[in-house]
């Protein structure tokens, strides 16, 4: 709010970027959840994942509706984010059902943290909408139960899944940086120029790291990737 | 109603079979529509197909709700039909986007005709529900426009798609016969024993053939598979 504040239109562009990116992310989320449902072995699992997919599509519809209210063409708003989001998914294609579950929980979790972080820099109405569409669809509990069952049945999968989760986080951070560098409006929102804003952003990054550690612990994956952990600090 | 009438419980079993089969069919339909949406090239096509997928899931939910009202375990009601429906889809995996569209229109069309035919032999409440869940999701118009565009752009695809459509019908009839022979309750419903019922069934088969011809014509595929047509009568 002091030096170099974003103009109204830059701010609006940042909001449109956020909504467009999130719209494509929820649409992709719908595709992945319904594909997971299709390959789930039992009918109850198919139904549980099908329900989550449809809930995610509802989130997509809300974002589409908001973009239309803002007189923005949803197609144009989403298109800039297709390459980065598709690249993330292409680079993190799960090798099996368990990797898919971990991706849905850890990968979507960190993405949601990013989106909320950006939303915190925008107006209240956008924040409310973003928090609504990022609300958990019941997926978290489903994944936690299934992954913990799998580790109990075969403890050796924990190490593999822990490394997989860390790779997901790395790829998510990489694509987030790509988007931030390509989209001036988002970079403006994030960089601000206001020292108070910058402080806020570092606190948000700290929260994001904490949230990721909590998700790893919930899955029972903490302490299974110590070899690569020291590399983080270098 | 005259000789060998179905008992109340046989009749109810036939209804449960119909609802269970249709529930798994709509769940499978949801998976196929969302997979088609995921591979659609443009964002507007992804959204159009995504909307249809979610509508189909709504149909699945209605059937599940009715099975629960009847105190039937939906999983148990669907399970007997998983092999035949999965076999149908495994044997008719579209080679490309156009074959997928034709399958969704011609294959789902003839399946819907089969389900309606069975429903016509049951109580009014079941008939109403079945007609509701089989109502077109807007898919028909989408497919007709896209297939006709493709034929205009490249008339040579019409012959290939016409043969593909005829194969779909053959596979659908084959799996329907398999289900009818495996499920006594459905066979009872269809065979009746009542001569009036049998007359009704042959009229329904005639209607089913007519409906299929109309769908082929709507896609612009009539007259493109004359070579195989004479074989029908042998």
Structural commentary:
The structure is a homodimer of 234-residue chains. With 234 residues, chain A is mainly α. Chain A has helices spanning 8-39, 43-69, 74-78, 82-91, 97-119, 124-133, 139-153, 157-182, 184-191, 195-218, 226-229. In chain A, helix 1 (8-39) runs antiparallel to helix 2 and helix 4 packs antiparallel against helix 8. The longest helix of chain A has 32 residues, at 8-39. The two termini of chain A are 35 Å apart. Residues 1-10 and 226-234 of chain A have low confidence and may be disordered. The A-B interface holds A 27, 30-31, 34-35, 37-38, 42-44, 46-47, 50, 53-54, 57, 60, 64, 74-75, 78-79, 82 and B 27, 30-31, 34-35, 37-38, 42-44, 46-47, 50, 53-54, 57, 60, 64, 74-75, 78-79, 82.
Calculate Rg of chain A over CA atoms.
Answer: 18 Å
The share of residues in helices of chain A is: over 70%
* Oligomeric description of these chains: homodimer
Total strands of chain A = 0
Distance, first to last CA of chain A: 35 Å
Number of helices of chain A: 11
Low-confidence stretches of chain A: 1-10, 226-234
- Morphology of chain A: globular
The main β sheet of chain A shows up as:
none
Mean pLDDT of chain A: 84
Order of helices and strands of chain A: HHHHHHHHHHH
Percent of residues in beta strands of chain A: under 5%
Instruction: Please state the structural category of chain A.
Output: mainly alpha
- Largest interface, chains and sizes: A-B, 23 and 23 residues
